[in-house]
């Protein structure tokens, strides 16, 4: 029997902690979790965030960015995007992968008159435009499948925020595939319902008679908060968990031609090679070595140093 | 006794997967049930637990490598 959990939080870090807590602690039930985040970016577990996202722009503009515990690419969330999570048992010998989770969602969308179909490995699309990205996490005998549903997201903000980083990256991380997207609200025809109406339709089609809502105890919430604090909001998880990568950039910094090669391991600058005819490269190399590859931290580090004011802008 | 650790088949149709990360290093002690490495196939991250207790003696792949199902990934020297 599936239980429903309605997350009242729009905080991406709390919601990711909630998912992980249910996934690793609540082994006796199946769950459907519905959740909505305030505007943020979410990258897959083993993605290189520095390559996936323009970290300089993100940090300058204060856009929250989070790392989830499942695979897949980089997605944008806002209040017009509905996230759904299924948590259930996993048996490797009879595990189909995605269809057992995608099919019911597609069926509901079809019943709303939306011509949604499965696309690529585990997307849902209308025509050639994506409305839902999905990913999974498997641990012991449990599987967590979650996905996005773009109902009326700010797609212009999405395109602006998911601007790629500058420079060349070399790592073994698998890169995200960019997809063109559309909002479900633009495909409703003469049916009219808003975000809450959409959410209710999804919910009601999973629970035909009675919604079996699972309520978290105070102790549960305390532990979720703890996981949020010790993992999901930390720099070490969001940035430092990126695989080791090599970053190369050849560009002009305030009239100096500078060639840069960085090797970043666990988010920290492990090697740094600079070439410039006009800057004192050794001084800069020793300054950067061992520092976190973080735009704000490096801006502070370079601040007040002669010739290096705003050098962090060059490093991203 | 030495035990070979192979690439597991995590779903009906899986043929290969990417070794996403090692959770143990060569020379480190591994307990039965501890997460040894993580696999990423398409959009699934799977934690793979060790079925053995012992010392992780050798690893043949690094993070980012794509590995076929049943290929030997590592060797554990058992207690």
How much helical structure, as a percent, in the residues of chain A?
A: 25-40%
- Taken together, the total number of domains of chain B comes to 1
The CATH topology of chain B is given as OB fold (Dihydrolipoamide Acetyltransferase, E2P)
Strand content of chain A: 25-35%
End-to-end distance of chain A: 49 Å
End-to-end separation of chain B: 7 Å
Characterize the structure shown.
Chain A is built from 11 helices and 15 strands. Chain A has helices at residues 12-25, 49-52, 55-61, 99-111, 155-161, 195-206, 218-232, 235-238, 281-288, 295-302, 311-314; strands at residues 2-6, 30-35, 40-43, 65-67, 75-77, 81-89, 116-119, 123-126, 129-132, 134-139, 142-150, 168-171, 245-253, 256-265, 268-275. Chain A has a 5-stranded mixed beta sheet, sandwiched between helices. In chain A, strands 12-13-14-15 form a 4-stranded antiparallel beta sheet, with helices on one face. A 3-stranded mixed beta sheet of chain A has the order 4-3-5, with no helix packed on it. The longest helix of chain A has 15 residues, at 218-232. Chain A is elongated. Chain B is mainly β and 79 residues long. In chain B, the strands form 2 sheets. A 4-stranded antiparallel beta sheet of chain B has the order 1-8-6-3, with no helix packed on it. A 4-stranded antiparallel beta sheet of chain B has the order 5-4-2-7, with no helix packed on it. In chain B, strand 4 and strand 5 form a beta hairpin. Strand 10 of chain A pairs parallel with strand 5 (44-49) of chain B.
List the helices and strands and how they pair.
The complex is a heterodimer of chains A (316) and B (79).
Chain A: E1 2-6, H1 12-25, E2 30-35, E3 40-43, H2 49-52, H3 55-61, E4 65-67, E5 75-77, E6 81-89, H4 99-111, E7 116-119, E8 123-126, E9 129-132, E10 134-139, E11 142-150, H5 155-161, E12 168-171, H6 195-206, H7 218-232, H8 235-238, E13 245-253, E14 256-265, E15 268-275, H9 281-288, H10 295-302, H11 311-314
Parallel strand pairs in A: 1-2, 3-4
Antiparallel strand pairs in A: 2-6, 3-5, 6-11, 7-8, 8-9, 10-11, 12-13, 13-14, 14-15
Helix pairs in contact in A: 1-7, 4-6
Chain B: E1 2-6, E2 16-22, E3 29-30, E4 35-41, E5 44-49, E6 54-59, E7 66-68, E8 72-78
Antiparallel strand pairs in B: 1-8, 2-4, 2-7, 3-6, 4-5, 6-8
């Amino acid at each position: 029997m599936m239980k429903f959990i309605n997350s009242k939080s729009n905080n991406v870090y709390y919601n990711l902690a909630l998912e992980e807590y249910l996934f690793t602690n609540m082994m006796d039930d199946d769950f459907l979790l519905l959740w909505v985040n305030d505007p943020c970016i979410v990258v897959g577990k083993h993605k290189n965030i520095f390559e996936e996202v323009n970290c300089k722009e993100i940090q300058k503009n204060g856009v929250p960015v989070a790392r989830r515990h499942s695979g897949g690419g980089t997605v944008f969330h806002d209040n017009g995007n509905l996230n759904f999570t299924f948590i259930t048992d996993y048996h490797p010998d009879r595990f189909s992968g995605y269809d057992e989770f995608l099919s019911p969602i597609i069926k509901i969308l079809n019943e709303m008159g939306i011509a949604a179909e499965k696309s690529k490995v585990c997307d849902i699309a209308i025509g050639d435009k994506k409305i839902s990205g999905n990913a999974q996490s498997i641990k012991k005998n449990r599987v967590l499948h979650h996905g996005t549903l773009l109902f009326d997201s700010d797609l212009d903000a999405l395109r602006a925020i998911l601007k790629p980083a500058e420079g060349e990256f070399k790592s073994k991380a698998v890169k995200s595939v960019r997809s063109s997207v559309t909002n479900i609200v633009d495909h409703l025809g003469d049916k009219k319902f808003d975000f809450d109406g959409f959410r209710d339709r999804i919910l009601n089609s999973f629970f035909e008679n009675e919604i079996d809502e699972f309520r978290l105890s105070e102790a549960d919430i305390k532990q979720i908060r703890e996981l949020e604090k010790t993992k999901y909001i930390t720099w070490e998880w969001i940035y430092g968990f990126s695989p080791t990568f090599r970053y190369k950039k050849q560009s002009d910094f305030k009239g100096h031609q500078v060639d840069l090669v960085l090797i970043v391991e666990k988010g920290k600058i492990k090697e740094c090679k600079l070439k410039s005819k006009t800057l004192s490269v050794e001084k800069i190399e020793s300054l950067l070595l061992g520092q976190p590859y973080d735009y704000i931290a490096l801006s502070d580090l370079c601040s007040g140093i002669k010739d290096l004011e705003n050098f962090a802008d060059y490093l991203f | 006794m030495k035990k070979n650790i192979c690439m597991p088949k995590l779903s009906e149709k899986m043929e290969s997967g990417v070794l996403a990360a090692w959770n143990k290093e060569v020379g480190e002690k591994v307990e039965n049930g501890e997460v040894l490495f993580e696999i990423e196939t398409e959009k699934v991250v799977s934690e793979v637990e060790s079925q053995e207790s012992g010392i992780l003696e050798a690893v043949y792949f690094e993070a980012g490598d794509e590995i076929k199902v049943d290929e030997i990934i590592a060797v554990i020297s058992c207690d």
